[in-house]
Amino acid sequence: MPSLPFVTQRKDEVSPIAEFYHGKNVFITGATGFIGKVLVEKLLRSCSGVKNIYILVRSKKGKEPSQRVEELLNAKIFEQIRTNNPTCLSKVIPIVGDITLPDLGINNSDRATLIENVSIVFHSAATVRFEEPLKKAVDMNILGTRRIVQLCHKMSLLEALIHVSTAYCNCNQKEIEEIVYPAPVDPQKLIDTVTWMNESLVDDITPKLLGDRPNTYTFTKALAETLLVEECGSLPVAIVRPSIVTGAWNEPLFGWADNFNGPAGMIVATGKGLLRSMMCESSKISDLIPVDVVINLMITVAWHTSIHRHNELKVYNCTSGSINPVTWKYWEMYVLPALRKYPSGQIFRFPGGTFKTNHQWNSVCQFFQHRIPAHAMDILAKLSGQKPKMVWLYSKIHRAVNSLEYFTMREWIFHCNNVLNLADHQIGQDKEIFNFSLKTLHWPTYFENYVYGVRKYLLKEEEATLPAARTNLARGQP
Questions:
Q1: pLDDT at position 459 over 50
Q2: CA-CA distance, 468 to 477, in Å (whole number)?
Q3: What pTM value is reported for the model?
């Protein structure tokens, strides 16, 4: 099975980037999300001289901000820090607030602390739900960005504001440069429109507003970039655009993932034998980007933005397709065998299935391979006095794969000259410690580690359960 190493910095290593963060205060939004967690861990581990990391956190699902921060720092990825340098965790300081509230909902005392002390801001908070109602997506993704910019304008020590966007915010373009494209609509006019309209009316006009974009996520992230350009003024700002963010390549743990979005959800559904058919063009490039690559780039971009002040906002397409391309065909070639090597302990059917490019044929396959078995299982559940859940589960799976169809049936050319040039600016040990080059990534090994990581960290199935899971899988061997 894959080993799970940690990448650490030796005392004799020279790292200009780590030195840059020494004594500085950092402010992060979205720290409890997938990208945010890895960012916090990486800063603590590889930039241990950082003074404080302030994280914006709100109450959620009955949990107070302090509870959420405690849960964050108890996550598996912080295990090495808890063991080797536990006092470092005290540098993570919660700032109670909410990206959707005026002034971010931050009290006067905390606001003064941020304004007087913060040098680096990473803005990664956003709603990443593709089908989020437009009114909410505007509030979080566009207005949330405005609120961050307004705060940054008051920070006297600010050296870099890094805005996390998405490579697909301009998915209506076939070829995407590292520039901010003209907005489909004026951000302020959209804000004004959704502010006075009730939610049902906004929902009615949403398809017209989206135009040739597939969902509210890509639409509002594009407008957030435009707003950033219009309102950042002289702030030192850069935009990082990841493509499809996947489990860790090397750090903090091979294959680590913490949510069921995108490919991780596909791995779980396929591994349990639930997902047998979906729309996907196997020959198209699947622009996957490991989360640790994204984080290393973000940390480096902040350093570069501060050291090399530019008159214009720079954009970094954090993508793999033009550097180390992999097609969806690899999914069938490498993910399915890995799912059989590291099977889940609870499977519905033997892992399998194929991609389809014809809607009618896909519908037929889903009817016989998804819907009929789901209804049959629910009937058996009712007869045995159990709660039926398979039809409900498949409705969720179908909504998820349908929302992915736009991206699995197309491909884009992402230019990444700024990313490649930035790698040339790294010196000393920074190329290793903050590596974001994908040239040495071996996709077959990565996919196997990703499957293992999803099983271990997402499904919480430990290595000791593998023999029983393999025995169970063998019984269903076709």
A1: yes
A2: 14
A3: 0.93
